[in-house]
Design a protein that fits this description.
Keywords: CBS domain, Cell membrane, Magnesium, Membrane, Metal-binding, Transmembrane, Transmembrane helix, Transport. Belongs to the SLC41A transporter family. This is Magnesium transporter MgtE. With about 450 residues, the chain is mainly α. It has three domains: about 130 residues, MgtE N-terminal domain-like (MgtE N-terminal fold); about 120 residues, Roll (CBS-domain); about 170 residues, SLC41 divalent cation transporters, integral membrane domain (Tetracycline Repressor, domain 2). The chain contains 22 helices and six strands. It has a three-stranded mixed β-sheet with strand order 1-2-3. Strands 4-5-6 form a three-stranded mixed β-sheet. It is globular and about 95 Å long.
C-alpha cells in the first residue's frame, strides 16, 4: 500500500537518489508501493535517461497499465525501448477499450502479431472499437456489459450470475434488453438481491435511464455524467441497440484530459507534449506559435509607426502607451477565458450569445470608465496636461470595450470555423487589443494635440 502522505516530489527525490547511486533495490521498493497511474506520473516527471532506467525496473505485469496512463509522446519513447515480444506481453492483459487507446501507437508489426494472437471474438471487438471516432463514446465504452431480458424472473438472473461466477468491475446494475438486444432499462443489483426471486425483471427495472449515443463526443458524455450524477450509463446505436457501457472511471480520465488540453492550448501547446522531451523537438513546436505571435507584434509595431511624428513631439505618449494596451489585454483575457470555459461546458449557444455579448459590453463600459478616470488623474498629475489625461481616458474606454467584444466574438467565430478557441484565441485577442489600443490612443493624440 502506497504512503498517501508522501508527495510526488518526495518520490521523485527518492527515485533520483536511488538511480544516481545505482541502488536498484531502493527503486524497486518505491515501485512496489505504487499504482500503475502513479508509476506513469513518475515516468513523465523524469528526464529521458532516468526515465528509461526506471522503466526497465517496472514489473512486467503492470507494463500495459502504465503505458495506458502515460501521455502519447512519453508512451512512444517507452515503446521504442521495448522489443516486440515485450510489447505483446505487456498489452495482452488489457481489455478491449484500453487496448484500443494505445493500439494505434504500436509498431505495425507488433499490431499485426497481436491481432493474429487474438481469438475471433477479441479481434472483432477491437476492430469494432477502433471503427469509432477517437473522441467518441464508442471509444470510451466497455463491452463487458451483462444484459438480461425483461421477461425473465429474478431467480433466472441469479442462476445466470452464479454460472458466470463474477461480474465486471463497476457493475452497479444489469442492462435490460428485449429479445432483439435493444436497450429497455436497467436492473440495480440491490433490487435483484432484495426482492422475491419469482418477480420478473420488468417489474423492478428502471426505464427512465439516460442512454448515450455511440457517436456522442467524449466531452458531451462527461458533461452528461456530471449534470446527471451518473456512475455508469448504457451506450446504444442510433436504433437503440445496446452496444456497451461507460463507467465513471473512464469519465474521470476524460475530464482530466480536457482540462490539460484547455490549459496547454491556451499557450499554443499540445496537451500530449512531454515536459522532459529533447530540446530540438520542443523548440520546433514552440517556434510555430512564437512565429505567429511575432507577426502580430509586427502588426502592432506597424500601427505605432504610423504615428511616429506624434511620438517624436510628445514623449508622454510613449510612456503611457503600454498602459492602454495592457488594460485592454487583461480585460479581454478575462472575458475570453470565461467564454472558452462556457463553450467547453456547452453553456454558450446562438440563443444566449447575444445576451452574453451585451453583458460583457456593459462590464467593459463600467470598468473602462472607472479605470480611465484613475489613469487620467494620474496622467495629469504626472505630466501636468489635462489634454493627455482626457485622451488616455478615452482610449482606455475604447480599448476595453473592444476587448470585451473580442473576448466573446473571437471564440464564437473560431468555434463556428471548427478551430479550438483555446488554441488560437489568446493570440488573436492580443492582436486586437494592441492594435485598437495603440490606434485609439495615438490617433486621438494626433487629432487633438498636434
Amino acid at each position: 500500500m502506497a504512503d498517501t502522505t508522501e508527495t510526488l516530489e518526495d518520490r521523485l527525490s527518492r527515485i533520483h537518489r536511488a538511480l544516481g547511486d545505482e541502488r536498484l533495490d531502493a527503486v524497486d521498493d518505491v515501485l512496489a508501493d505504487l499504482e500503475p497511474a502513479e508509476v506513469a506520473l513518475l515516468l513523465e516527471s523524469l528526464p529521458p535517461a532516468a526515465r528509461i532506467k526506471l522503466w526497465e525496473r517496472v514489473p512486467g505485469e503492470v507494463d500495459g497499465e502504465v503505458l495506458l496512463h502515460v501521455h502519447d509522446e512519453v508512451r512512444s519513447t517507452l515503446l521504442d525501448d521495448m522489443d516486440h515480444a515485450e510489447i505483446v506481453a505487456a498489452t495482452s492483459g488489457l481489455d478491449t477499450t484500453d487496448l484500443a487507446e494505445i493500439f494505434e501507437d504500436l509498431p505495425q508489426q507488433v499490431a499485426e502479431d497481436m491481432l493474429r494472437s487474438m481469438d475471433e471474438l477479441q479481434r472483432s471487438r477491437l476492430q469494432e472499437t477502433l471503427s469509432f471516432e477517437e473522441d467518441s463514446a464508442g471509444r470510451l465504452m466497455r463491452t463487458d456489459t451483462i444484459a438480461v431480458r425483461a421477461d425473465v424472473s429474478l431467480e433466472t438472473v441469479k442462476r445466470f450470475l452464479r454460472w458466470k461466477e463474477t461480474v465486471p468491475d463497476n457493475t452497479h446494475a444489469l442492462m435490460v434488453v428485449d429479445r432483439n438486444g435493444f436497450f429497455v432499462g436497467v436492473l440495480p443489483l440491490a433490487r435483484l438481491v432484495a426482492n422475491d426471486p419469482e418477480m420478473a425483471v420488468a417489474d423492478l427495472m428502471d426505464q427512465e435511464v439516460d442512454s448515450i449515443q455511440v457517436t456522442m463526443h467524449s466531452r458531451e458524455v462527461a458533461t452528461l455524467f456530471q449534470t446527471h450524477d451518473l456512475a455508469s450509463a448504457p451506450v446504444v446505436d442510433e436504433d437503440g441497440l445496446l452496444l456497451g457501457r461507460i463507467v465513471i472511471d473512464d469519465i474521470v480520465d476524460v475530464i482530466r484530459e480536457n482540462s490539460e488540453q484547455a490549459l496547454m492550448n491556451m499557450a499554443g501547446l499540445d496537451e500530449e507534449e512531454d515536459l522532459f522531451a529533447p530540446v530540438m523537438p520542443s523548440a520546433k513546436r514552440r517556434a510555430v506559435w512564437l512565429g505567429i505571435n511575432l507577426v502580430t507584434a509586427f502588426l502592432a509595431a506597424w500601427v505605432i509607426g504610423r504615428f511616429e511624428d506624434a511620438l517624436d513631439k510628445i514623449v508622454a505618449l510613449a510612456v503611457l502607451m503600454p498602459i492602454v494596451a495592457s488594460m485592454g489585454g487583461i480585460a479581454g483575457s478575462q472575458t475570453l477565458t470565461l467564454a472558452i470555459r462556457g463553450l467547453a461546458l456547452g453553456q454558450i449557444s446562438r440563443t444566449n450569445s447575444s445576451w452574453l455579448l451585451r453583458k460583457e459590453i456593459g462590464i467593459a463600459a463600467l470598468n473602462g470608465v472607472l479605470w480611465s478616470l484613475v489613469v487620467a488623474v494620474l496622467a495629469v498629475l504626472w505630466f501636468g496636461s489635462i489634454a493627455i489625461g482626457v485622451i488616455i481616458a478615452a482610449a482606455l474606454v475604447i480599448n476595453m470595450l473592444a476587448a470585451g467584444i473580442a473576448g466573446i466574438v473571437i471564440p464564437l467565430m473560431l468555434k463556428r470555423a471548427g478551430i479550438d478557441p483555446a488554441l488560437s484565441g489568446s493570440v488573436i485577442l492580443t492582436t486586437v487589443t494592441d492594435v485598437v489600443g495603440f490606434m485609439a490612443f495615438l490617433g486621438l493624440a494626433t487629432l487633438f494635440l498636434l
